[in-house]
Design brief:
The chain is α/β, with parallel strands linked by helices. Helix content is 36%, strand content 16%. It has a twelve-stranded mixed sheet, with helices on both faces. β8, α8 and β9 form a beta-alpha-beta unit. The longest helix is centred in the C-terminal third of the chain and has 24 residues.
């Protein structure tokens, strides 16, 4: 009997950027069908426009109304947009924002209903997507609001070279110091450690924790957050069995190459972690939203309006995002299988040696 196929939803993102280009280029690889059945949430009209613009031939896109109709080794597309939808290459438009949200809403609905095993999101314009229904800084916060009531999701950048998570994500830099608390760091470290074990199959992860200030505060000479917040958080996590080291200076950690000694790095704020990550792994990096009951990945880049329609955008990051979504799904399945029947000690074995 054939194993049940993994159905992966793909949201088309901003239709005026490189979303469709990287999606269609990725799905030209026939090996994709050995991993999953892809379902694009978008617009058959827009997809046809990009197939023509990019000279992509011999690619069948099968229009369906519902995700449960996706079977076998084919590419499917669900129409989420009105017939009036219009592509304006390289431009930031309200219509593109509406189309991006319509696809995201439909895909997350099906994901919540169990019709999809994961979603891969093409880049959005965080300004044009804003509406009464989407008032979030980005995908991470939207999914966090949808799928978890307590706790926080974690932005985790992933590549073969390194993994970088952040304590604070899409907030102004001026608000970072006041946002960082011992409780928040502990929460993020706990989520990161759990994700490394369950989503990536790392038995005992080693995590590097960055400081907030230059040179990790130099023992209070350049700021006190390390002494009063970060070190107590690290100590609390160590007591809980998490293997973590820090606070470490960001320039030393990345400049010396010692980041390679760790399974993941926890940065205090967005650019502290993502700037070095994208310098080292932009071409192949993936953005993964850890800490959710569902699986969502995306490429590490943005809409790249300046490349739209030129057939020059690399699909490597998006392809890796699709591969990672499949890998995480299988890792979670393996973890559940390995832990579903722990050894039970009953009255017959209590106090006796088990041979």
């Amino acid at each position: 009997m054939e194993e049940k196929r993994i159905i992966i939803g793909i949201t088309h993102g901003d239709i005026n950027g490189i979303g469709y280009e990287v999606i269609l280029k990725t799905l030209q690889d026939p090996h994709i069908f050995e991993l999953c059945t892809p379902v694009i949430y978008g617009s058959p009209k827009v997809a046809a426009y990009y197939r023509k613009t990019l000279n992509i031939e011999n690619m069948g896109l099968n229009t369906i109304n519902h995700a449960h109709d996706a079977t076998g080794r084919k590419i499917y597309i669900i129409n989420c947009c009105s017939d009036e939808v219009k592509v304006e290459l390289g431009n930031s438009t309200e219509m593109a924002g509406q189309a991006a949200f319509a696809a995201l809403k439909a895909a997350t609905h099906d994901l919540s209903a169990g019709l999809l095993q994961a979603i891969v999101t093409a880049p959005i314009n965080k300004y044009t997507i804003q509406s009464p229904q989407f008032s979030f800084p980005g995908h991470t916060e939207y999914l966090e609001n949808m799928f978890i009531k307590d706790g926080k999701a974690l932005m985790l950048m992933v590549s073969d070279l390194l993994k970088v998570a952040v304590v604070t994500g899409h907030i102004p830099v001026a608000k970072v110091p006041a946002t960082i608390t011992q409780e928040l760091i502990v929460e993020k470290l706990t989520v990161l450690n759990k994700s490394l074990i369950e989503d990536f199959g790392i038995v005992r992860p080693r995590i590097a924790v960055m400081g907030l200030n230059p040179h990790a505060g130099d023992k209070g000479v350049i700021g006190t957050e390390e002494q009063t917040i970060i070190i107590p958080a690290i100590q609390q996590c160590i007591e809980q069995g998490i293997v973590c080291v820090g606070p470490l200076s960001a320039d030393g950690l990345f400049g010396s190459g010692s980041f390679r000694n760790f399974d993941a790095i926890l940065a205090m704020y967005h650019d502290q972690g993502l700037a070095p990550f994208k310098t080292l792994a932009m071409e192949n990096g993936v953005n993964y939203t850890a800490g959710l009951p569902i699986i969502r990945t995306s490429p590490a880049h943005g809409t790249a309006y300046e490349l739209a329609g030129q057939n020059t955008a690399s699909e490597s990051s998006f392809r890796n995002a699709l591969f990672l979504a499949c890998d995480i799904y299988r890792h979670r399945q393996d973890y559940r299988e390995a832990t579903k029947n722990p050894l039970k000690i009953n009255s017959m074995t209590q106090g006796s040696e088990i041979i």
